[in-house]
Amino acid sequence: MLGVTDYGTFVVTIIVFLLIPGPGNLALITSTSKGGIAGGLGATFGVILGDQVLMWSAVAGVAALLAAYPDAFHAVQWFGAAYLAYLGARMLLAKPGAAPVLNIKAGHYLRQAMAITLLNPKAILFYMAFFPLFVDPALQQGLLTYAFMAATIAVLTFLYGLTSVLLTHFLAERIRANPKISQGLEKLAGVFLIGFGVKLALQR
After folding, report:
1. How far apart are CA 153 and CA 49, in angstroms?
2. Distance CA 9, CA 17 (A)
3. Among candidates 100, 117, 120, 118, which has minimal Cα distance to 31?
4. pLDDT range class, residue 146, cuts 50, 70, 90
5. CA 75 to the chain's CA centroid
6. Rounded to the nearest 10 degrees, how much is the dihedral formed by the CA atoms of 163, 164, 165, 170?
7. Which residue in 153, 184, 187, 199 has the most C-beta neighbors within 10 A?
8. Span 17-65, pLDDT tens digits
């Protein structure tokens, strides 16, 4: 299909990767709990836009550039780790009733989730290695094939994000009735963000 081999396997693989817990998933959940469906959808589109930038950067050969200049790669990696840890620390130190760490406006959620997605340089190398597994050299149609794969990932991410947002919103309405639970979950989110930052910083 448009030069993509084993398209069914490609779709299933992407779904599995979407289900793996990570900063993007945490951004969706936190944004929805703070900003409702609008905030969650804003974060979903932020993740999609960030992923598209990383995918097309991989296609354009940025991955090869990062591999050739490891200092630049590690600089981006450390900056991403520091950003995640910064967000997590703010959540942990936030006082009850304080303004949310992730902004209320959906546009802010979009930028926040996009930044979290973009600040994971490993993703570029992942896409660089992942795409060729499903490209048929004899049938591939250049940029059209990669555009089809990128569009597939965008659609799957949106459907996954929409499902996560609706489920989170349904649960959040009940959690908001108990401020202690809400505060506890925010602290837990902060711990996870710091953990993701440390994990990213230690990756080689």
Report:
1. 11
2. 12
3. 100
4. confident
5. 19
6. 90
7. 153
8. 787 667 777 788 888 877 888 888 988 999 999 989 888 888 887 667 6
What distances in angstroms separate CA 124 from CA 52, 61, 73, 121, 200, one per listed residue? 10, 9, 10, 6, 14
Instruction: Please tell me the distance from the alpha carbon of residue 98 to that of residue 124, in angstroms, as a whole number.
Output: 36
For 135, the 3-state DSSP assignment is: strand
SS (H, E, C) 48-92: HHHHHHHHHHHHCCHHHHHHHCHHHHHHHHHHHHHHHHHHHHHHH
For 10, the enclosing helix (H) or strand (E) is helix 7-19
Give yes or no for a contact between 156 and 14, defined as CB atoms under 8 angstroms apart: yes
Q: Is the pLDDT of residue 138 over 90?
A: no
Q: How far apart are CA 134 and CA 29, in angstroms?
A: 31
Q: Which residue has the tokens 């795409």?
A: 131
Q: Decide if pLDDT at 158 tops 90.
A: yes
> In the numeric block, which tokens belong to residue 106?
């959906």
